[in-house]
From TrEMBL:
Gene Ontology MF annotations: asparaginyl-tRNA synthase (glutamine-hydrolyzing) activity; ATP binding; glutaminyl-tRNA synthase (glutamine-hydrolyzing) activity
Organism from which the protein derives: Fibroporia radiculosa
Protein known as: Glutamyl-tRNA(Gln) amidotransferase subunit B, mitochondrial
Keywords on record: ATP-binding, Ligase, Mitochondrion, Nucleotide-binding, Protein biosynthesis
InterPro entries, alphabetized: Asn/Gln-tRNA_amidoTrfase_suB/E, Asn/Gln-tRNA_Trfase_suB/E_cat, Asn/Gln_amidotransferase, Asn/Gln_tRNA_amidoTrase-B-like, GatB, GatB_Yqey_C_2, Gln-tRNA_amidoTrfase_suB_CS, Gln_synth/guanido_kin_cat_dom
Family: Belongs to the GatB/GatE family. GatB subfamily.
Keyword Transmembrane in record: no
Catalytic activity reported: L-aspartyl-tRNA(Asn) + L-glutamine + ATP + H2O = L-asparaginyl-tRNA(Asn) + L-glutamate + ADP + phosphate + 2 H(+); L-glutamyl-tRNA(Gln) + L-glutamine + ATP + H2O = L-glutaminyl-tRNA(Gln) + L-glutamate + ADP + phosphate + H(+)
UniProt keyword Mitochondrion present: yes
Length: 525
């Protein structure tokens, strides 16, 4: 007989590391480019979700505000104004670094990166170049069994926005965004395909959202990617990289990488070389184009910012942040699956959840996972998830609404699930259908009324056999049908169905026919 041996933890760890090692070293055979290895590293810029900007006390804005309504003299680089570091931005940066398992540097510093552009009034951007906030982290890609190393995380300022009006021939400058805090999260070149890159950005997006450090909204520009791509033949060292700037959708990023890989392979196969350059992406043509070559790369003249002291972070602060960390997506997934939810249901809940608001001051998240957690207290998790993902989300989708439009509270949905599960709903339709009808009614009519009360109002609650209403209806039916009643008394049992029918009619279908029959028989004995 085979003995069952528990796999020691260390062994499991070693297997995992071997797998990781393979991800780095083993050539990937991709049928799209069978002879080539693709190497990708991504710089993600995530806008920090703080109330005020990185170095001024002006409130951060979103794209809906009129231009230049959130600008302080500092943001506009008026002479004599000085930066003052916003501790909230540091806190959210540290939380992000912890979520990425990175090492928080006890001493980091701010530098000036000089370049001239109309949306950068000071002529330099404050960033962390020589000493970043955090280093050597990593992110696990659940669906691709991959671990991507994170080189560093740094804090920096966002720029303003310039829009060129080609008819008038002028540029319009909006400084609302100028000075907003950004986290630049730089990966090592560990990604090997457009799909890896897509999964990496989505996972990172879910992570920053789950800890509330960024909206991570690519369409609105609060998460932007610079993607570095190179190709090499199997076994050869990494090739020369090109950096594609400012991609703001996962889909376009994947298209941009595919097209860039093909361009580089075509160059190399025709005997030419790939020149290191910065490139843009044309969405209409699905092509990348050259912005500037390495030779034209601006000299940023980095220098430490003389107005900002080094940022010192002690272990006690990091420990405090670590203790206050909310549940991270990996842990949430594991917890939900341990409750018996299917992978699909878990994914749906977490996907719907990703737009959630999470605050650290004790307030609970308003997302789908929090909703599920609240309702599943004391109820069957699988039944609850079914009501949320199938019934509720299904009806919301039918109404072209999303989860954030849902106004049914956790208590209300919990109550609805209870009355359906306990078989208290009945009617001419099946209990499940009545439940769905009630749910639809609740979505149509925003109210705080509990479903059990609504069911009572609409006579959808089953009347239990000990209910006095039942006996009253039975007595009334006997009085209304004296001949039939006599027939039953004389032993003609079949006639009782007519009296039962009468009672069911009085109860508008809410009575339990078996119970009615039993009561009638007792009364007519
Ligand atoms: N051979 C390569 N192929 C693809 N990507 C690479 C390669 N070598 C490095 N990279 C990636 O390029 C990126 C370099 O980013 P980093 O911020 O360090 O420097 P940079 O792009 O030169 O500076 P800047 O922040 O000014 O754009 C990293 O994500 C890294 O993983
Ligand atoms: Mg960079
Ligand atoms: Mg770069």
């Amino acid at each position: 007989m085979l003995a069952r041996v528990r796999t020691p933890r260390r062994f499991k760890q070693i297997t995992r590391y071997t797998r990781l090692l393979h991800a780095f070293c083993v050539p990937q055979n991709d049928s799209r480019w069978p002879e080539w290895n693709v190497v990708i590293g991504i710089e993600v810029h995530a806008q920090i979700k703080s109330r005020s900007k990185l170095f001024s006390d002006t409130w951060t804005s979103d794209y809906t505000l009129p231009p230049n309504t959130r600008v302080s003299p500092y943001d506009a680089a008026f002479p004599g104004t000085l930066p003052l570091l916003n501790p909230r931005c540091v806190e959210l940066g540290v939380r992000t670094a912890l979520a990425l398992n990175a090492k928080i540097e006890p001493r980091s510093a701010f530098d000036r990166k000089h370049y001239f552009y109309a949306d950068l009034p000071a002529g330099y951007q404050i960033t962390q170049y020589y000493a970043p906030l955090a280093t050597s982290g990593g992110l696990r890609l659940e669906n691709r069994e991959k671990y991507v190393r994170i080189k560093q995380i740094q804090l920096e300022q966002d720029t303003g926005k310039s829009t060129f009006d080609s008819r008038e021939g002028i540029s319009a400058i909006d400084l609302n965004r100028a000075g907003t805090g950004l986290m630049e999260i730089v990966s090592e070149p560990d990604l090997r395909s457009p799909e890896d890159a897509g999964e990496y950005v989505r996972t990172l997006q879910a992570l920053v959202r789950s800890i509330g450090s960024s909206d991570g909204n690519m369409e609105q520009g609060s998460l932007r990617c610079d993607v570095n791509v190179s190709v090499n033949r199997h076994g050869a060292p990494h090739g020369t990289r090109c950096e594609i700037k400012n991609l703001n959708s996962v889909k376009f990023m994947m298209v941009a990488i595919t097209s860039e890989v093909r361009r580089q392979i075509d160059l190399l196969e025709s005997g030419r070389a790939v020149a290191q350059e910065t490139r843009g992406f044309n969405e209409d043509k699905a092509e990348t184009y050259s912005l500037r070559s390495k030779e034209d790369a601006p000299d940023y003249r980095y220098m430490p910012d003389p107005n900002l002291p080094p940022l010192l972070i002690d272990e006690a602060y990091v420990e405090k942040m670590r203790n206050e960390m909310p549940e991270l997506p990996d842990a949430t997934r594991a917890r939900l699956q341990a409750l018996g939810l299917s992978r699909r249901d878990t994914d749906v809940l977490m996907e719907v959840d990703s737009g959630r608001e999470v605050r650290f001051d004790g307030e609970v998240g308003r997302g789908a996972v929090a909703y599920f957690d609240q309702i599943s207290q004391g109820r069957d998790p699988k039944v609850v998830v079914n009501w949320i993902t199938h019934e509720l989300l299904g009806q919301l989708a039918f109404r072209r609404e999303t989860f954030s439009d849902n106004h049914i509270s956790a208590e209300q949905l919990g109550d609805l699930i209870d009355i359906v599960q306990q078989g208290r709903l009945t009617g001419y339709v099946t209990p499940g259908t009545s439940g769905k009808t009630l749910l639809r009614h609740m979505l149509d009519h925003c109210s705080e009324e509990m479903p059990s009360k609504l069911a009572e109002k609409f006579s959808l609650l089953a009347v239990s056999s000990d209910d006095s209403a039942l006996e009253r209806w039975c007595a009334e039916a006997i009085a209304a049908l004296p001949q039939e009643a006599d027939a039953v008394r004389r032993g003609n049992d079949k006639v009782i169905n007519k009296i039962v029918g009468r009672v069911m009619k009085s109860s508008r279908g809410t009575a339990n026919a078996q119970a009615v029959r039993a009561i009638l028989l007792k009364m007519l004995q």
